[in-house]
Amino acid sequence: MSLISVGEIQAAAQRIRPYVLCTPLIPAPWGDRDRPLFLKPEGLQSVGAFKVRGAFNAIGRLDAATRARGVVAYSSGNHAQAVACAAARFGIVAHIVMPRETPQVKIEATRAHGAEVVLCEPGRREAVAAEVVERTGGVLIPPFDHPDVIAGQGTIGLEIAEDLPEVASVIVPVSGGGLASGIGTAIRALAPAATVFGAEPELAADTAASLAAGHRVDWSIEDRNRTIADGLRSQPSALTFAHLRQVLDGVITVSENEIRDAVREIALRANLVAEPSGAVALAAYRRGATPPGPTVVIVSGGNVELGMLAQILTG
Questions:
Q1: Longest Cα pair distance anywhere in the chain, in angstroms?
Q2: Beta-strand pair 26-28/37-41
Q3: CA angle, corner 228, sides to 151 and 116, nearest 5?
Q4: Do the Cβ atoms of 32 and 181 come closer than 8 Å?
Q5: Which of 129, 207, 229, 259 to pair with 198, CA 20 to 30 A apart?
Q6: Could you tell me the pTM of the whole model?
Q7: Residues recognised as catalytic
Q8: pLDDT digit string (tens) for 263-277?
Q9: Where do the domains of the chain lie, and which CATH numbers do they carry?
């Protein structure tokens, strides 16, 4: 299987530059002394999450005639908003398939970009999206299973290597695996001495199980839906799993309470809002399993319902 190259990620960085924020590395002086902590706050992006990078790269690579047909996506939220945002900027139609259990804040944010939202039952996203593609003639922009999406997410790794050449470890949330695949590819090429770890909820630890087994291990949607980290309920594709096997040094799994503690820590110590999925990497850092040296934690998104945030902060 053909894996993306750092050259493709560098090309993606040029393509998406007008549309995305080069997020800062925020020093966190309360981190461990032997593992200086830096936060990469992708919640500062216009849609509140890193997904905007892959969406703009994938749609930006389409020729004008293909793009004019419109786009279709399926997502639990952040990819939905990203594709809707990119479609609006390019002036094209977007149809977004979202599970009914998606937090309402993410559904409304997607509609606010002008997209048509199609709600579906759990486990039916891909099938319903295929039906929408057939009905509309739009182009499918998958949330992670596409080289252009992976390359777009990998631009985060370019920024880390440029801003912190001495980086020792990078911790990345893992769900479908596009983010970790892209960042890992960039870090392996530009900071080869650094380690790259995935972070995953214990209740949706299919990637950890798959890497341990040497092949993809299926977890039921009912099992994966147990975690509070609703953005981390997908499973790697054949494409992303092939990347993860090459670029990850391991996967650190964390409990639901550790995820909540990390959301609280980011809010109270860094003055940033992180959704549970976005805080998983910090929870993994707190496990202390990474080697000494400067450590970058990817805070992948901040789209959390206010009620849940309030409950976490006061719980």
A1: 56
A2: antiparallel
A3: 60
A4: no
A5: 129
A6: 0.95
A7: 51, 76
A8: 999 999 999 999 999
A9: 6-49+146-314 (3.40.50.1100), 52-140 (3.40.50.1100)
